[in-house]
Every structure is written in structure tokens, then in C-alpha cells.
């Protein structure tokens, strides 16, 4: 049975890999060069593998050493990051959860603006499409796809969900399409880009067409379908076809002209995106400031 290897041995190995010098590694760790050498030798003995080649004062990693070095560095970096919430004096840490589409299309830029104005606050973003993870009370703030009520969160509206087909100007130009003149039949015949409905309340092209003022005579058949909504929007931005745009999430792309609305049908689903604060506990001051920042910038 392999004897457990102490974590300290891997820290010594990591320092030796970074400096490629046992004396310098020892100075960083406040131990002697001889102690570094003994611990590397002990690690090699326990693993049954040579980790360094030694030619005079020069060190080089063996293939086994290279593989171990990559794994040890990744593990130590993960451990350091995991310990951050437990360290005092490092500023305030707050958490916010949002879906992939909200994080990618709407929230990212606003968090960057908040970071620039609040350097003492660290924001951890949980990106997930799982309703239970989004609504977890472990989060300080959440952005939920909802109708406005939740038993554990006080919700404030950010944006209604209003859906309209969109495409890039390049796609429209290549196909000689005048966007404003299209009806549902015309749009159904284009290169539709859809996405998988992770939530039963989400609307994809089939449901959108059924709610159009004049539904198409033929059943629309999307040519491509992506696993996430944001990937579908990215494909539309690249000129690959027509995606179903949520106006609030793609307001920047509509404003700068990188996406264009097709036709005149806008479908309101009755759902929207809401910013939530915990109903039964107070949030840290930084979370309250972020809450206000997101509402002001919405």
C-alpha cells in the first residue's frame, strides 16, 4: 500500500520546479538546500519515479517530473483560490448567481464596471442553468428567470422577456433580405438557429412561431441547434443565420447594429429577469452596492 505523501513534499517539489535550483527553492521555503534535496529524494522514492536529472548544478525535469509538475501546480493554485474566503483582511467577497445567457450577454460588462468602481470588493460569479443552484441561499444575489415572485428571494425586475428574430447585417446582405418587410412565413424559410430548452418555460422558435400574429403555414425547421442560448446568439452574430433574440439581453448588439430585428412581431412571454436579494437575511454592504449598481445600469 502506497504511503500517504505529505502536502509539504509537493510544495517543495513545486518550488524546485519553478526555480530549477534547490538552494533558491530552500530560501523561498525557509529551509536548507539539503532539506530540499532530501524531500525531493523521498518523493522520488515514494513515487518510484525519477523527477529530476542532475548535471552538476543544472536541473531538468524528467518526463515523469513534467507530468507531476503540471498536476501539482494546478492543484496548489486551486487550493490557494479555495482558501481565499477564509482569509481576513483581503476585502469583502460577495457572490452572485446567473444563467449562462445572462452572464455572457448582459452581466459580464456590468460586473467589470462595478469592479472598477469597488476595488475592495471581490465578486464571485456562479454561472449555471440549474434552477436549484441559481436559487441557492448560499448566494448573496441572484438573477432569476421568473414571473416576479419567489418564496426565498425578494425580486426586483431587470427586464421583461420580449422575443424577436434577429440576424446580422452581413447575413441579410448576402441573402438580399429587407428585415422590416418579413412576415412569419418568410422568417420560417430562413436559416434558423435554435437552442435547447433547459427550462420548460423557455421559448424556442417553435413556440415563438405559434404565438406570431400570423403563424407560418409550414412548420419551421431550424437548421442548427446549440446547447446554450448564448451560443445561438454568437452564431447569429457571425452571420450564420437567424436566432431568437431576447431584446433585454441583446440590447447592446441591437443598439450598435451588429444584430437587426426581423419583421414586426415581438412576443412577450410573461416572464422576465429579476434581481434577487435574500428574503430572510441581510447581505454584506458590497452586495447591497452591487444590487444598486445593477438596477441603476439596467
TrEMBL record:
Domain of life: Bacteria
Protein's name according to its UniProt entry: HTH-type transcriptional regulator TtuA
Similarity comment text for this entry: Belongs to the LysR transcriptional regulatory family.
Molecular function GO labels: DNA-binding transcription factor activity; sequence-specific DNA binding
Keyword DNA-binding (UniProt): yes
Gene Ontology BP terms: DNA-templated transcription
Task of the protein: Transcriptional regulator of the ttuABCDE tartrate utilization operon.
The UniProt record lists the keyword Magnesium: no
Keywords linked to the UniProt accession: DNA-binding, Transcription, Transcription regulation
PANTHER family: HTH-TYPE TRANSCRIPTIONAL REGULATOR, HTH-TYPE TRANSCRIPTIONAL REGULATOR TRPI
Annotated Gene3D superfamilies: Periplasmic binding protein-like II, Winged helix-like DNA-binding domain superfamily/Winged helix DNA-binding domain
Ranges of residues in domain HTH lysR-type: 5-62
